[in-house]
Amino acid sequence: MPTVTQLNATDYGFTPTASNPSTALSSAISAAISQGRPLFIDPGSYTVSNVVITGPLDLIGVPGKVTLKLASGANAILVLQNFGRARLSGLIFDGVNLTPSDSYGVGYRALVVAQRTTSTTSRLAVERCVFQHADGYGLGVSQCAALIVDSDFNDLFAATGAENHEGFVFEDSRLSAMRNNGVVMSRDAGTPAITHIVGNRINGVARTTPESTGYQGNAVLIEAESNVVVAQNEIYDCAFTAVRLNGCTRSRVSQNHCDKHGEVAIYVEGFSNGRQIANDGFDVVVSDNVINDAGVGVAIANIDNSGRLGVIANNVIRRISKRTVAAGTANQYTSPGKAIAAETCVLIANNFVEDAFQGIDLSAGSYTQDSVILGNVLRKTTLAMGVSTVAGAKEVLVGDNLATGFAAVSSGGGALRQMNAAGAVTGTTDLASFTESTGTANLRIEGVASRATL
Fold this sequence. Notes:
Helix content is 3%, strand content 50%.
């Protein structure tokens, strides 16, 4: 089989000492596109700005040896527009602590921009690249498909941002020292496409605005997408959440290790701004995750915006405590310290909870209905389980759960307690030994083995 001979950017004057390196690189790229050949960049450090790619291209460097630095005043390092197919391999994109701009309208100020503005399908592959040191995103994608694999994102405002993407896969990569968020995507147009965030290590996500209570400090933040898989990631030390899905449907959050998060580790919520995917419920599975040290373990919320239809199963959740969020600001509040919190139409099964203020909370007042709490082990909690039993609440089955080491009823504890419309404990009875809760017909109890001591 014949081989394709690559071009060398040096032959077009692109050297570390070139008087106008951006023009030289543009010339080399134009030649590579017109000839249909890969373009190789020799090892070295180059300062470039706003280099535009408008056709199919393989841009290649020796991993760790080629650095493209953002020039002062530049909008971006590379801008891919209506390019068809492109691959970036073995390159370092360095923002040198400058701030790129969003003059291209992709929704993210990024070191590398990929966008489609015509009917031309555009697909970008990024492999073995590094994005670092910028008050902006490493990669910004708009209306393109993107595959990012085996790449590093360090010291950035956020790693990647994708708006109205046409397929987004982020795999086997590493993020550290994110200033505001990790992987971010949103949709306000087009058909939802497959989103896979799989096998990554994310360590350290801060937030730039202390009063923020949700849209900063997240390792994975996805809005209004469908067919979402977030799996097998190691996520550590986030100011807010490990995984936050807003208005998403048909989603799976599985086999992640989430450790040390300031608020909810895994949060699935409905939208209130009209961007909720048109579907009567989330269709979400949160399973087989290991969660340690957070203000809430797993939450499925906002029934008033389709926050229903979920499975929370086979998770190990430990060290969940009340903690102050947005401390010292007007938005300050205290997280509730619940290992699992849901509102309605949910199956909560086979989870192991240890050391939490509350193990399981199923309370949305009269909205609570058609839910099952089955086969969970709940150790060392103040309150093991709480379920809404107010007027209007409908059937909830609690069966074959084990609760040990909870607090006394007189202290707000117990194995299984009634909850009012505000989500607070009501009544003076632990219902663990009942077959139906006192004063309501919605709660059916098929067995709770309980012991106050450990």
